[in-house]
Amino acid sequence: MVISVIKETKTGENRVALSPDVVNELVKKGFSIHLESGAGEKSFFFDKQYTDVGAQIATSMQDLLQQADVLIGVNQLSEAQISQLKKGAILISLVFTTPESEWVKACITQGISVFSVNAIPRISRAQKMDALSSQSNLAGYKTVILAANALGKIFPMLMTAAGTIKPTKVLIMGAGVAGLQAIATAKRLGALVEVSDIRPETKEQVQSLGAKFIEVKSDESMVTEGGYVKQVSEEFLKKQQALVAKHASEADIIITTALIPGKKAPILITEDMVKSMRPGSVIVDMATEQGGNCALSELDKTVIKHNVTIIGESNLPSLLPQNASQLYAKNMSAFLTHLSSAEKFHFDTGEEITKGSLLIHLGAIVHPTLIKQ
To answer: Which residues is 303 bridged to in the sheet?
Structure first.
């Protein structure tokens, strides 16, 4: 079974789907790995490192696509790339799409099967495959580093002969994987950290990291699934904004992480809240790809509004490409070996992990999120 990895073509993407150490493991298990020349260079993995562990390097992306039994990527392929895959090929990558998209139609026309890495069920036996968590962990770390770099002051309290410097106040909105790593990183740097999350079950985790939990009482409108908030009322969001507004005005840094799968990100930081912040403060909005949690953030831009720096980087793991690629590759190896042997795939559509992540099977839509209602 030929597994192909091409050079990622998305603007600003520095990751690669398989690292040399993981290729080494897969080759030993009998898989045949083919990579496009230079696929790992932006992650500081070079062709010789791959050939040394048994991979084959190709100079033509077109040849790789046409020969692939399985194509493993970080981002979803373009429609033009999909059209070059052979019928029956299997695509594994992060996938964000809708039933009506031309991308789905291209997959159906080509007769391929598609596994969505971000749709892998978040269950205990799938933890090794959970790319969303591995990448969010790194993203949470990087948000704090970006904020620290943009802030014109240090994080810890510093007592000197010239006077005492007060510690930086950091407000983190959302205590998921990214938020928890941001808390830990900010605390290690010496900041005072406050955290807001509408899920009351996160309180203990927040406090265990030494942060203060800002509690908003949940209501009946809240619907959670798989650790995510799937639905919440406008009234509840207004209550949260009112409570958080005071803390935001006192914060030097705000990091927002709130996402609702399949929907626009909720606005947590209004323009009035930005205006209330001290000059020189920093906001890092991790949700800009889904519209943003801050009303003034801009996708993939750093802007200054009302004397506050607002960072809207959408692909934070790509800023740590070596670690991000290493972890993603480990996730892919665990996923691949769960689904297949070196000779063939085992399409057990009743098995929970397969059922949750298989979007399209041999050109037929099988996942409920892509079936038109």
So the answer is: 310
Sign, CA dihedral 346-352-355-357, equals: negative
Is 70 exceeded by the pLDDT of residue 220?
no
Dist CA 77 CA 265 (whole Å): 24
The structural domains of the chain, ordered by start, are 2-119+321-366 (3.40.50.720), 131-319 (3.40.50.720)
pLDDT in tens, 322-337: 999 999 999 999 999 9
Task: Give the number of other CB atoms < 10 A from CB of residue 330.
Answer: 19
Q: Which of 75-89, 212-226, 338-352: highest mean pLDDT?
A: 75-89
DSSP, collapsed to helix, strand or coil, labels residue 319 as helix
- Of how many residues is the chain composed? 373
Tokens matching residue 256: 């927002």
The mean per-residue pLDDT over the stretch 181-208 comes to 94
Q: Is the dihedral of CA 122, 127, 129, 132 positive or negative?
A: positive
Neighbours of 328 (CB within 10 A): 27
What gap in Å lies between CA 325 and CA 18, rounded to an integer?
A: 7
Across the chain, the runs of DSSP E, i.e. the strands, are 2-5, 32-36, 56-58, 70-72, 90-93, 113-116, 158-160, 163-165, 169-173, 192-197, 212-215, 223-225, 228-231, 253-256, 282-285, 302-305, 308-311, 358-361, 364-365
Give DSSP secondary structure letters for 98-154.
-TT-HHHHHHHHHT-EEEEGGGS---GGGGGG-HHHHHHHHHHHHHHHHHHHHSSS-
Catalytically active residues, by annotation? 122, 127, 130, 133, 228
